[in-house]
Amino acid sequence: MSRFNDDFSSIVDSSSATGWLTSILQLGGWVGALSAGIFAEVFTRRYTIFSGALWVILGSFLTAGAHNGSYLYAGRFFTGLGVGTLSAVGPLYNAELAPPEMRGFLVALQQFSTTLGIMVSYWIGYGTNYIGGTGDGQSDWAWRTPLLIQGIPAIVLALGVIFILPFSPRMLVSQGKDEEAMQVLSHLRGFPPGDFLLQVEFLEIRSEVLFERRMFAQRFPHLADGKSVWRREFAQYMNIFRTKDNFKRVAIAGLIMFFQQWSGIDSIIYYASSIFQTLGLTSGTISLLATGVVGIINVVVTIPAIMIIDKIGRKPLLLAGSIGMFVSMIITAVIVAKFQHDWQHHAAAGWTAVAFIWIYIANFAYSWGPASWVLISEIFPLSIRAKGTSIGASSNWMNNFIIAFIVPPMIKGIGWGMYLFFAVWLFIGAFFVGFFVPETKNKTLEEMDIVFGSIVASQEREMFATVRNEVGLTRLLEASNRGEESKSFKEDMSHVEAA
């Protein structure tokens, strides 16, 4: 916006300063996502979400009221802390509340909400661009209003945490609050506590909690008393690297987010207006309008994705999206290389390049957008779930930070080479998904161990079987297989408590 350019000319006139202004939010996101893994365990998922909302509120008001670059940078960083925290805890929280047949849908719904927010922000920016007129007559409120509005959803979220959101049942079980966990499950599923399926789900959660607790006691006997809460949580990060299985899961989560970012998606999301201007849409208003279309496409295509992700699976969507994005980047690179020096006489070529960027966005919206967040929320065992999810989310933010920082000089320096650069990473990412990422659709979080070949050592297998017997899950399933009437949940729980 022209008024913002005038107020902060020292930032706008430098590609490195512009990169820092954009990317400092991602740096805050990295810190927030990484720390969320510990805070979500110590302070619960619910309260960690609340803290993330408060950071966003603070950041929004600092940037909206900024009169110099320092306030802008500080506000962006605090906003990043909040958004990074929410990006790590949100999918984890949703996955732990969701039934397995809807988990992909509900976690992907978060990605839909993200795309909806992006679209709304684009059009708010387009609308407020006219406050006080255009050009020299534009008001400061043209750019302050969107930054102020940014805090409103965070306020709604903070209030929702206080009055609506329940604690995660898996979190409650891990804290020994079995009765409260059962009440939450009953409320979420809409079944009475004595329902057979509800009993099975509860006992699956309880058996995994007990199994992971015993495995932790074996690996870290000096911390098994639970007195050193913070030391225990940091030890869980060590636990990630103690077993091949855990390391494999963390590596997949980190690399999935690495390839999501190096697909180049946020080079478009953050700098769409600047990119469209390099394609011949020299009017700031027209480039903002084309950017608004990016937001619409992102939302519209995400809707069918969240409806089919549990039916088709994660891998097919990722592979199909990679192919579509790769082709779009190659074609855009060819068009820009041929016509970048004379868009005035090749306006049709410019609009064709814009169209392929829109196609690129569409392919991301049904694939890497929702599927990557679903994957990192569901592949970890309870013992490292919060830590693993936070590492995956922090990988997203760290690579996001790098992309946001390097794109402005790439736009000015290598032109069409930028599109080719991201096409290469898309090709590598598709190869990684095809050969190294397992399919996880319709698996309970407790069945995910089987997907990754875990519990294969005889000692672990025997311990897991023992735990299932102790909590009554094996007896309950055997009774069901014989067609017997299941006992009341209260009677079943008497055996569990005795164990």
Concise structural overview:
With 499 residues, the protein is mostly helical. Helix content is 80%, strand content 0%. The protein has helices spanning 2-7, 9-12, 15-42, 44-64, 69-97, 103-128, 141-149, 151-163, 169-174, 178-189, 196-219, 229-240, 244-261, 265-278, 284-312, 314-339, 347-366, 368-378, 382-413, 416-436, 448-451, 458-471, 473-481, 489-498.
Characterise this structure.
It is built from 24 helices and no strands. The chain is mostly helical. The protein has one domain: Up-down Bundle (Growth Hormone, Chain: A), CATH 1.20.1250.20. Helix 5 (69-97) crosses helix 18, helix 15 (284-312) packs antiparallel against helix 16 (314-339) and helix 17 (347-366) packs parallel to helix 18. The longest helix is centred in the last third of the chain and has 32 residues, at 382-413. Residues 1-441 form the Major facilitator superfamily (MFS) profile domain. This is Major facilitator superfamily (MFS) profile domain-containing protein. The chain crosses the membrane at residues 20-40, 47-67, 73-93, 105-127, 147-167, 250-273, 285-309, 316-336, 348-369, 390-411, 417-437.
